[in-house]
Amino acid sequence: MHPLIPPSRVVLSRLVSLALEEDTGRGDVTTAACIPTSVVGRATFGARKPCVVAGLDLIDEVFAQVDPKVRVERTAADGDRLAPGAIAARIEGSAASLLVGERVALNFLQRASGVATVTRAHVDALTPGSKTRIADTRKTTPGLRAVERYAVRCGGGHNHRDDLSSAVLIKDNHIAAAGGVKAAIERCRAYAPHTSRIECEVDSIDQLVIALDARADIVMLDNFDDATVERALGIVAGRAIVEVSGGITRARIAALSALGVDVISVGALTHSAPAVDIGLDWES
Question: Which residues are catalytic?
Fold first, then answer.
């Protein structure tokens, strides 16, 4: 299993700073009006439904920026499965500070944990013993890619290319603009460094054969049904890594992994993951 390395402090600091600016504006008028600065508060981040938790570093960063004197104690680790009622973290400090940071901390935690939870459900659907990877896509929330991709890893998934510069991936519109599969692959191979693999998306068996003849290293079978995936695997016969994408549901994961595909990429891990119901409960 790959290590769970969270986004850098620089990235988290920038995200949290923007979120706090968005939420607090010129201050929290409600808290300022009714909570004396001398009041100390304690609260817990608790799961209200089963989930996989992710994004605990963001709680630290939120309260570090709101009030460095707030103490954050983790009672779970990113990637842990939480049952309803389980506590992920405790916070203690100025009650006003806890209230100012509450929503931003919850927004990040609920979003990241939602992605991790959906990812874990897809990973758990793999055929036992399968070597198939569940991977994300670039269909991420603008600005939150680093957090959401980390959450995918917390759920047991893998990351696809981080951005447009990190890998060669020829998509349908590249093929259309380049004049065909063969031309696109040959141009990319001539341009890319020798360390780069060439991945090409194909939407038919005819395109697959052309991509293999042009020596694509990875073929992405786009919107193939299970029977056509099985046929495609027979044609590939180990000559390329096989990725399946498009129209992927959790119900298809077991069958696809049993066929022996190498990667199943699922945009829904990030673009359709619902926020997890995690709440901040005040302790008296």
Answer: 103, 139, 171, 201, 222
